[in-house]
Design a protein that fits this description.
The chain is an all-alpha fold and 224 residues long. Helix content is 66%, strand content 0%. Helix 4 runs antiparallel to helix 8.
């Protein structure tokens, strides 16, 4: 058990952080929701009522979709674009999909390579892009969840103000939906750009996301 935890410590750490912050968000969100209800003359809801509401669902889903979009785009863009001096980038001249020999696929697969890396035809193609496909699908699913939960929350507000509800198509083309969406996207893109650029000149000793402390600033694709 100890070995299992040690070998999966990074994933377990972030899963625990995810659960802790999700729980904190649910408590803080319920309190904020009830403050708003009281200010508008509405009735408070229980914690269970809040975490099963569309208001909580849309707040969670809109963050998930922006995170998955960030990773999806970063995975694809770093195949083709480089940043001189960044450990987050390939070296100059290595842009693109690389050769089968470099990627250890088809006849170049090693004895320990995944079975689909050596498989012919579509299976190898799918496996070669499986990470990007998975992140893309997770983004689309979380975006869809945000749109559905956001629609329910938006229509609840419409009805409370004695206004007509809107359909899904009307909501996903509305300012409310895109305000929620774009405010998350812009923060994710800024964070990625900051990481790429700051990692050129700054270091974190021992981190694979940083260059070695003594590496030149112009060193690209190295890690500590």
């Amino acid at each position: 058990m100890k070995r299992l935890v040690r070998e999966n410590a990074l994933a377990l750490c972030f899963l625990l952080l995810f659960l802790a912050t999700l729980a904190g968000q649910s408590v803080a969100g319920a309190a904020a929701f009830n403050e708003e209800q009281a200010a508008n003359g509405g009735s408070p809801v229980t914690w269970a009522g809040y975490v099963t509401s569309s208001s909580f669902a849309v707040d969670v889903a809109e963050n998930w979709q922006s995170e998955y979009l960030q990773f999806f785009l970063y995975i694809l863009i770093t195949v083709w674009l480089i940043q001189r001096g960044s450990p987050e980038s390939k070296k100059e001249g290595e842009e693109g999909l690389e050769s089968d020999a470099e990627q250890k696929v088809g006849p170049y697969a090693a004895p320990g390579s995944p079975a689909w890396a050596a498989a012919p035809s579509w299976r190898r193609t799918v496996f070669s892009h499986s990470l990007g496909i998975a992140m893309g699908l997770l983004f689309l699913l979380s975006w869809l969840a945000q749109s559905v939960a956001g629609l329910a929350a938006y229509n609840n507000e419409q009805l409370a103000q004695l206004e007509d509800p809107v359909g899904w198509g009307g909501y996903v083309t509305s300012p409310d939906f895109w305000n929620r969406t774009l405010q998350n996207w812009q923060s994710e893109f800024l964070a990625v750009a900051s990481m790429v650029l700051l990692a050129i000149f700054l270091r974190e000793r021992g981190s694979p996301q940083s260059k070695k402390v003594g590496d030149p600033h112009a060193e690209t694709a190295s890690s500590g």
